Amino acid sequence: MHQQEHGITTGTTDVTYNLISVAYHALQGAENYSIYAMDAEQNGDDETAQFFRALVDEERRRADRAKDLLLSKLQAQK
After folding, report:
1. What integer is the mean pLDDT of 37-66?
2. Strands, E assignment, 1-78
3. Which of 34, 37, 46, 62 has the fewest CB atoms within 10 Å, measured from its CB?
């Protein structure tokens, strides 16, 4: 989708839309990686479980950063 089409379709700016999208996908990734970690643990693979748990943490930090930026952008629009 062309950048200008986001605003027409959603009524939001591209930056707002993109930050919401990043937060959503990061949280979705964290949820998936958490499941993968549990699968690895059930198979006795602690090293792989630890890897997936690290990914969960990274995705949560990414989502938090996107949320913080979004909040800042929305407050600036007031």
Report:
1. 98
2. none
3. 46
In whole angstroms, give the CA distance from residue 37 to residue 51.
Answer: 8
Q: Is 26 helix (H, G, I), strand (E, B) or coil?
A: helix
Cα 46 from chain centroid?
25
17-28 burial, b at 16+ Cβ within 10 Å, e below that, comes to bbbeebbeebbe
Residues 64, 27: Cα–Cα separation, whole Å: 9
19 — pLDDT class (breaks 50, 70, 90): very high
Q: What is the largest CA-CA distance in the chain?
A: 52
